[in-house]
Amino acid sequence: MISARQLRLAILPTLTSVLLYMAPLQAAEFPGYEVAPERRTTGIGKFYMGREISFVMGHQAAGWLNRPGRIQEEMPDEVVENMGLDPDHVVADIGAGSGYFSFRIAKLVPQGKVLAVDIQQEMLDIIEERKAADGVTNIEGVMGEVDDPNLPPNSIDAAIMVDAYHEFDHPFEMIDGINNALRVGGRIFLLEYRGEDDSVPIRPLHKMTEEQVVKEMGVFGLEWTDTLDFLPWQHMMVFTKVREN
Ligand SMILES: C[S@@+](CC[C@H](N)C(=O)[O-])C[C@H]1O[C@@H](n2cnc3c(N)ncnc32)[C@H](O)[C@@H]1O
């Protein structure tokens, strides 16, 4: 006959393990947004985890995204090579703009596809025009919403955001949506200008520090797998979805 105490001691560790195992299944906790009356130049006056969100770059500036100097400044071909993609991967380019990265990624996934997500129809139109001109068939434009990338659950192997995340005005909801769309083992590539480097000639709200990015991705239990430091001005940070939501 075992005592009540012995029974408790026998059950507790099992119960604790079960609860610990279940913890990641709980939804990410929303840290909240703050609104300040004074906004900084190029900011929207809305803060997330201590960071002021920047305004969205309008489609009128799409030409600037294709400026020739970007090849040296942002080394786009080296970026996509370093994603380690398989030919059948499905990759979401979130905040795709004119498709500067989407078209490069599409070449690396001939049996897969790129989902080019943006909230500006004009950007998706630019991508459609170039698809037709270049005969590219494995890019699909997706009209996103400010708080939803509109991607089906468990549908993508990777997501990339280049110079875009800092201007998402609902970053929590966006990463939640991307996280849900990722398959387990899938990766998020987040590229932002280095906020801790004063020599990078970009306005402060259009940069992010590595520490801030890790803090914001950590809310979702995403594992910080790597930071590739080969780029002149940006971090190429890699996060992995290590378990089901
Ligand atoms: C500075 S551009 C960068 C475009 C592209 N990634 C590149 O590197 O050339 C940022 C893009 O993010 C888009 N964007 C902003 N908020 C978004 C959101 N919540 N969801 C999807 N796209 C968004 C903007 O419309 C804009 O086209």
Summarize the structure.
The protein is of the alpha/beta class. 31% of the residues lie in helices and 26% in strands.
Biggest beta-sheet profile: 8 strands, mixed
Question: Which small compounds were modeled alongside the protein?
Answer: S-adenosylmethionine
Rg over CA atoms, rounded to whole Å, is 20 Å
* Helical fraction: 25-40%
Return the structural class: alpha/beta
CATH superfamily membership of the domain at 74-240, which one?
A: Vaccinia Virus protein VP39
The tally of beta strands, per DSSP, is 11
How confident is the prediction overall: mean pLDDT? 91
The CATH topology assignment of the domain at 74-240 is Rossmann fold
Overall outline: globular
What is the string of SSEs from the N terminus onward?
Answer: HEEEHHHEHEHEEHEEHEE
Low-pLDDT runs of 5+ residues are 3-25
CATH secondary-structure class of the domain at 74-240: Alpha Beta
How does the SSE layout of this entry go?
Elements: H1 4-22, E1 33-35, E2 43-48, E3 51-54, H2 62-65, H3 70-74, H4 76-81, E4 90-94, H5 102-108, E5 113-118, H6 121-134, E6 139-143, E7 156-162, H7 171-181, E8 182-194, E9 207-208, H8 210-218, E10 223-228, E11 234-240
Parallel strand pairs: 4-5, 4-7, 5-6, 7-8, 8-9
Antiparallel strand pairs: 1-2, 2-3, 8-11, 10-11
